[in-house]
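Project outcomes to date are best conveyed with an example. Our students and postdoctoral researchers have been running inverse folding experiments weekly, and each run begins with a structure described purely in tokens. The record below, which covers 236 residues, was selected by the lab manager from last quarter's runs and is presented without edits.
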């Protein structure tokens, strides 16, 4: 669902464009304003979160949930986020550095292919994010309340993360309008997932983008829908 009325975020958006501001400083996820408001409503203190890509979202979650596990690919940025977390004494946050590795194949990789473990960033051409994307495999299935995909090789991260979301848990994809994320959208286009689509203003940038949040429907919810097909499809 697209939320109109972006004008209500105009002042906050203009303030975020100050060159001295950034998501880590503001302790905010770099997602659509409406998506952030949605998260603020559904987050609970007992939740466990896994995220690909660290930053303001890491601190945002750490202040609101029981545990955050954040995987980062960039060594310099990892150091900055880790310093910030330690300085703020956020003991419920585990930050991991998993850098990409060189690949021997000369075949061009397709960032839309979940089996390619590649990035669309030319800086990472010839590099594999397989260790980074598969890092969530160390956890049991249906373990996380929220999985936030906002790092590199997102289709590959999604492939490994899909089974790790609990019933009634949430999977978040940032910059979801990118064409190479079609695999993610098509994989979740079924009755097991309820989609919330937030297209609109983003802090810190001059253009609109899209954040999509999917809720994993429980077997009980599916039964209720079958028994009452006229019920709302946008429950929370």
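After processing, the design step wrote out the following sequence:
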């Amino acid at each position: 669902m697209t939320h109109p009325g972006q004008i209500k975020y105009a002042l906050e958006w203009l303030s975020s464009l100050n060159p001295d501001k950034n998501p880590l400083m503001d302790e905010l996820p770099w997602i659509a304003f409406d998506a952030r408001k949605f998260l603020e409503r559904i987050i609970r203190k007992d939740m466990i979160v896994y995220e690909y890509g660290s930053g303001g979202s890491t601190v945002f979650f750490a202040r609101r949930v029981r545990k955050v596990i954040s995987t980062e690919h960039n060594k310099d940025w990892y150091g900055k986020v880790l310093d910030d977390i330690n300085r703020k004494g956020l003991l419920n946050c585990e930050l991991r550095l998993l850098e990409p590795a060189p690949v021997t194949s000369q075949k061009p990789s397709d960032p839309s292919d979940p089996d390619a473990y590649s990035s669309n960033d030319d800086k990472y051409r010839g590099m594999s994010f397989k260790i980074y994307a598969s890092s969530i495999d160390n956890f049991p299935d249906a373990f996380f309340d929220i999985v936030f995909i906002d790092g590199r090789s997102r289709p590959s991260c999604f492939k490994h993360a899909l089974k790790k979301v609990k019933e009634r848990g949430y999977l978040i994809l940032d910059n979801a309008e990118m064409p190479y994320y079609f695999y993610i959208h098509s994989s979740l286009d079924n009755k097991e997932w309820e989609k919330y689509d937030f297209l609109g203003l983003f802090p810190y940038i001059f253009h609109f983008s899209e954040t999509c949040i999917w809720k994993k429907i429980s077997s009980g919810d599916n039964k209720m829908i079958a028994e009452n097909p006229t019920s709302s499809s946008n429950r929370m």
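The longest strand covers residues 165-174. Residues 223-227, 229-236 have pLDDT under 50 and may be disordered. The training component of this project remains on track.
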